[in-house]
Specification:
The chain is of the alpha/beta class. It has helices at residues 2-10, 19-26, 34-38, 81-89, 109-120, 125-131, 165-168, 176-191, 232-241, 254-264, 279-284, 287-293, 307-317, 332-337, 350-355, 365-407, 414-432, 455-478, 486-506, 524-542, 544-550, 557-583, and strands at 13-15, 29-33, 44-49, 54-57, 68-70, 94-97, 103-106, 134-141, 146-153, 156-163, 195-204, 217-225, 245-249, 276-278, 299-301, 322-326, 340-344, 358-360. The strands form 3 sheets. The chain has an 8-stranded mixed sheet with strand order 1-18-17-16-2-13-15-14, with helices on both faces. The protein starts with a helix and ends with a helix.
């Protein structure tokens, strides 16, 4: 576990709780936030719509440079004035430019994108805030799905608003035809995978109450695009091949979410609408209905942080081992409830990181894929070590039982048992932990284990040990007249030690031949510790001090040849099993 977790940290996956390793390797569902995990969270306004025209906006991250082109070619310097002003007034972000020209932001990326667009339209933050002092800013409200800001103006109070079209368009002063036209433009931008925000304003004489219902003047729509992480489609394809379903959770409109999910490879182009579930529909569903829907839904849109807990429980009740990503304070309950809570290391809050089992140091979905591979490899290493230890112990106990029942003798001294378990086994186990299983871990060939000791494990243990038990029993039968002498006990100890080395080499892979090209050399540590174990055994047999402690005596070459012949028979039997497993 420790060596595997160290490798995971090198691949930007910080494991906080050991049980997270098992859950990551066994995960069937990974529910991820769109922002930051699917996308880079570098929003930019690329389209704008007013009542009279729509515009294409050239964008390069948070750089202010970029032309705004009217579709009608009738450029008007004031056509976007109110839209740009509302963008600036509803933005509380700070855009910082370093000496080397690098642009960073403080605050919400959506508001930073609005501010950059306003600057492209010629609106400067310092100038407008000097003329319109801030009265109140409650921040974005997830419940109401919009951001309302109040400024003092010469005519009273200016209320500016930016938020979800589904909520705010019904509060705009629009004619029926205008409303239909704006809805069509909203759907057009959404189908292009843009996050669409509507902006408006209203001047009132008295300072408005928080949450008061208004009918705003419509300023326009803006369409934002976020950049997908590099190599995202390949990562998602890898996860799908590994039998892991990626579920996207976003606050975007369902049409936008669907388009983005298709771009990312989460959904197919011809995917059914049943694979996208919006938050308002989720609200009306019972827990049982949500569990049923979870079998097909792969995108949750217009979702608030409070919905995540229900989503996690639904997948778990459906029988899926579920991982959930999150970054905010409100995500903590879902991160705790999930089989595996994954916090985003860059943009995640300390509360989210504390609640999570794993922290993604680079906020990238590809790190989850490598973490799953590493988690499955660690689990395979544990199974490998357990198989080895059980094989060695089972063969030893069986030999002791056979000797006691058939020959009324103890063929190995207690000190020699201790030597075998605490020297030979421990040295080899340390090398087996560095064995890295890679073949088939991220393919549909991978079979999720039902436990460390499975039927397949038991079959392997019996298959590994049976040849050695039979052959050692034959040796015991030939030596039964002198089973409790130092020479016979030393011989049995040596035969058991050498067969243990064979077990260690056999358990490295379930189906790859030991004699495959490069396989024998792929774990140099095992070669080194096998040599070390051989030297230790020579020490136990031939060094006088160890002879006294372990009750051993020097052995002739013939005994060593018998030991290696038995070990070779164990390897041969396992190679036959692997051959049939590969061809099956």
């Amino acid at each position: 576990l420790a060596s595997g977790i160290a490798r995971m940290s090198e691949r930007s996956v910080l494991v906080k709780r050991l049980q997270g390793v098992e859950a990551l390797g066994q995960a069937k569902i990974i529910a991820v936030d769109k922002t930051g995990t699917i996308t880079k969270n570098q929003l930019a306004v690329v389209a704008a719509v007013t009542l009279h025209d729509h515009y294409a906006v050239a964008a390069n991250g948070y750089q202010v440079a970029g032309a705004i082109t009217s579709s009608s070619k009738k450029e008007s310097p004031h056509a976007l004035d109110w839209l740009a002003r509302s963008c600036m007034l509803t933005s509380g972000a700070q855009i910082l430019t370093a000496e080397d020209g690098t642009v960073t932001i403080e605050g919400d990326p959506t508001e930073a994108a609005l501010q950059v667009f306003a600057k492209k339209c010629g609106i400067e933050q310092g100038e407008i805030t000097a003329r319109l002092p801030l009265v109140r800013d409650e921040g974005f409200d997830y419940t109401r799905k919009y951001h309302e800001v109040v400024h003092k103006s010469s005519r009273g109070y200016l209320v500016s608003v930016a938020g979800a079209p589904d909520v705010l368009l019904d509060q705009m002063q629009l004619s029926e035809n205008e409303h239909v036209m704006i809805r069509q433009q909203q759907e057009r931008l959404s189908r292009l995978g843009m996050r669409v925000i509507v902006l408006g304003h209203l001047v009132v004489r008295e300072s408005p109450k928080v949450g008061a219902h208004h009918h705003y003047h419509f300023d326009g729509l803006v369409g934002m695009q976020d950049t997908l992480h590099d190599g995202l489609q390949k990562t998602i394809a890898t996860l799908h091949d590994a039998g892991v379903s990626v579920v996207m959770i976003t606050g975007d409109h369902p049409i936008t979410a669907h388009a983005l999910a298709v771009q990312a490879g989460i959904l197919e182009n011809n995917s059914s609408s049943h694979q996208v579930l919006s938050g308002d529909v989720l609200e009306r569903m019972s827990d049982e209905e949500l569990v049923t829907a979870s079998a097909s839904v792969r995108v949750f849109a217009r979702v608030s942080p409070e919905h995540k807990l229900r989503i996690v429980h639904a997948f778990q009740k459906a029988g899926y081992v579920t991982a959930m990503t999150g970054d905010g304070v409100n995500d903590a309950p879902a991160l705790t409830a999930a089989d595996l809570g994954i916090a985003l290391g860059i943009r995640g809050t300390e509360v989210a990181k504390d609640a999570a089992d794993i922290v993604l140091l680079d906020d990238n979905l590809s790190s989850i894929a490598t973490g799953i591979e590493e988690g499955r490899s660690i689990y395979a290493s544990i199974q490998r070590v357990v198989t080895y230890l059980f094989s060695g112990s089972f063969s030893l106990v069986t030999i002791l039982v056979i000797s006691a029942v058939l020959f009324r003798a103890t063929p190995i001294a207690p000190s020699q048992v201790i030597w075998l378990n605490f020297v030979t086994d421990v040295v080899l186990v340390l090398a087996l932990t560095s064995e890295r299983t890679r073949e088939g871990l991220l393919t549909r060939r991978y079979v999720h284990p039902t436990g460390l000791i499975t039927r397949d494990t038991l079959r392997r243990i019996f298959g590994l040990t049976t040849p050695s038990i039979i052959l050692i029993s034959i040796v015991l039968a030939t030596m039964q007249g002198s089973l409790e002498t130092d020479r016979s006990r030393t011989a049995i100890l040596t035969i058991l030690a050498v067969t243990h080395w064979a077990f260690a080499w056999n358990v490295r892979s379930k189906d790859t031949s030991l004699f495959s090209a490069g396989f024998a050399r792929s774990n140099p540590q095992l070669i080194e510790v096998t040599i070390l174990a051989f030297i230790l055994q020579l020490t136990a047999v031939y060094v006088p001090v160890f002879q006294q402690v372990l009750h051993t005596t020097a052995l002739p070459l013939g005994t060593w040849l018998i030991a290696f012949a038995i070990a070779a028979s164990c390897i041969a039997a396992e190679e036959v099993r692997k051959y049939f497993r590969r061809h099956r």
